Amino acid sequence: MGILNLTPDSFFEGSRVKLEEAALLQKATQMVEEGVDIFDIGGYSTRPGASEVSEDEECQRTVWAVSLIKEKFPEKWISIDTFRAKVAKEAVHAGADIVNDIAAGELDSAMIPTVGQLNVPYIAMHMRGNPQTMQNLTTYEDILKEMLLFFHKKNQECIAAGIRDIILDPGFGFAKTLEQNYWILKNLSYFKNISRPILVGLSRKSMIYKKLGVNAENSLNGTTALHMVSLISGAQVLRVHDVLEAKQTIELYKQVYH
């Protein structure tokens, strides 16, 4: 899953795409050449402390991009990265195949019922609070147990709403400390209890660059190392900034383990 951020303020500058057709197609074409399977298009930066974006502006940033990429690359899947039901609905009508929700329905009560009506797969991510408050909500008694209960609850909600394909995302960096992120990664297979595919999104995140004493720009090597750990631990989808390197990691993983 390759990240296309139509935002001016997402944490990794290399993932930002200008709101212009030529710039978007250039980036998308590069990703296709590198072997992308799913485009993840987002118009709301969810980095800690990111500024608020109105629903209408989020739609304006993303819906045209979904439509354009679907037209140019009809064989590729498109995921809309949003926690708002309205944006999800408009994007799916424009050609998106998957809804990727960082809030798992917690920030918009209409989201899960809407996805059920749209009849598309749903990625439910674990987070507390919202992007503005999540860094203050990192106290857990037993983080793995609490996350597993959260996913059980979400799984049942989604099934009740008619969603058949549910993917779980542990939400690395969302209401979690650096140590908690690594504990979750070490125990990723714990979430296989729910028998749903697991998506991992840790590409170039602060859990890598702070640990290594570098910045987001210099964290590709660390990202690749943790992608291999994720695959060995049971991840089925990698959400990445660097498609080529992730595909190479998957190829080598398959050579050893399949």
Short note summarizing the structure:
Keywords: Folate biosynthesis, Magnesium, Metal-binding, Transferase. The chain has 258 residues and is of the alpha/beta class. The protein has helices at 21-34, 55-72, 85-94, 111-118, 143-160, 178-186, 206-212, 220-232, 243-257; strands at 2-5, 38-42, 77-81, 98-101, 122-125, 166-169, 199-200, 237-238.
Task: Give a written overview of the molecule.
There is one protein chain. This protein is α/β, with parallel strands linked by helices. It has a single domain, classed as Dihydropteroate synthase-like (TIM Barrel, Alpha-Beta Barrel), CATH 3.20.20.20. Helices cover 43% and strands 12% of the residues. The chain contains 9 helices and 8 strands. The protein has helices at 21-34, 55-72, 85-94, 111-118, 143-160, 178-186, 206-212, 220-232, 243-257; strands at residues 2-5, 38-42, 77-81, 98-101, 122-125, 166-169, 199-200, 237-238. The strands form 2 sheets. The chain has a 6-stranded parallel sheet with strand order 1-2-3-4-5-6, with helices on one face. The chain has a two-stranded parallel ribbon with strand order 7-8. Helix 1 (21-34) crosses helix 2 (55-72) and helix 3 (85-94) runs parallel beside helix 4. It is globular and about 45 Å long. 43% of the residues are buried. The mean pLDDT is 93. Keywords: Folate biosynthesis, Magnesium, Metal-binding, Transferase.
